[in-house]
Amino acid sequence: METSVGDCWIGLPLPVCMEMSEDDNNMEEYPTEIHDYLTAFEKSLGSVDEMLKTMMSVSRNELLQKLDPLEQAKLDLVSVYTLNSMFWVYLATQGINPKEHPVKQELERIRTYMNKVKEIADKKKASKLDKGAASRFVKNALWEPNAEKEHTSKTSAKGKKQQRD
């Protein structure tokens, strides 16, 4: 049975196909220059698979109960963005230009919402101004000529009082 790289993506795991193609150089249907790229792609797929297994091991309701609403929105956006990105890659592997497919608008829409959530998170992290403390700080930092005269007269009065004692 002859196996191609395309069959690997559909049926057999990529390492099995790569071992088969390394055993028999006549069966190799892809240029050797892309071997490193395929290896990196295989590692990336393994990472995605592990991440998905981790996410799927916990029920969605359990996970959402542990998160605040902002974190829930982030999780939902990342999930839907990942799914649409994977569909983008699928379209590209099928010879369909994803830039001309509605998935492009969907990814842009999701990015817009991701930016909105990021703005909200940034506003939440920003320090809040204590208006009372700020006004006291400014009031005390500003020079007031009348206050200095009063301060000077109080100081001189203390000095005269200390001299009498």
UniProtKB/TrEMBL annotation:
<comment type="similarity">
    <text>Belongs to the C1D family.</text>
</comment>
<dbReference type="GO" id="GO:0005730">
    <property type="term" value="C:nucleolus"/>
</dbReference>
<protein>
    <recommendedName>
        <fullName>Nuclear nucleic acid-binding protein C1D</fullName>
    </recommendedName>
</protein>
<dbReference type="GO" id="GO:0005654">
    <property type="term" value="C:nucleoplasm"/>
</dbReference>
<keyword id="KW-0694">RNA-binding</keyword>
<dbReference type="GO" id="GO:0003677">
    <property type="term" value="F:DNA binding"/>
</dbReference>
<comment type="subunit">
    <text>Monomer and homodimer.</text>
</comment>
<dbReference type="GO" id="GO:0005737">
    <property type="term" value="C:cytoplasm"/>
</dbReference>
<dbReference type="GO" id="GO:0000178">
    <property type="term" value="C:exosome (RNase complex)"/>
</dbReference>
<dbReference type="GO" id="GO:0000460">
    <property type="term" value="P:maturation of 5.8S rRNA"/>
</dbReference>
<dbReference type="Pfam" id="PF04000">
    <property type="entry name" value="Sas10_Utp3"/>
</dbReference>
<dbReference type="InterPro" id="IPR011082">
    <property type="entry name" value="Exosome-assoc_fac/DNA_repair"/>
</dbReference>
<comment type="function">
    <text>Plays a role in the recruitment of the exosome to pre-rRNA to mediate the 3'-5' end processing of the 5.8S rRNA.</text>
</comment>
<keyword id="KW-0698">rRNA processing</keyword>
<dbReference type="InterPro" id="IPR007146">
    <property type="entry name" value="Sas10/Utp3/C1D"/>
</dbReference>
<dbReference type="GO" id="GO:0017053">
    <property type="term" value="C:transcription repressor complex"/>
</dbReference>
<keyword id="KW-0539">Nucleus</keyword>
<dbReference type="GO" id="GO:0016922">
    <property type="term" value="F:nuclear receptor binding"/>
</dbReference>
<dbReference type="GO" id="GO:0003723">
    <property type="term" value="F:RNA binding"/>
</dbReference>
<dbReference type="GO" id="GO:0003714">
    <property type="term" value="F:transcription corepressor activity"/>
</dbReference>
<keyword id="KW-0238">DNA-binding</keyword>
<keyword id="KW-0963">Cytoplasm</keyword>
<feature type="region of interest" description="Disordered">
    <location>
        <begin position="140"/>
        <end position="165"/>
    </location>
</feature>
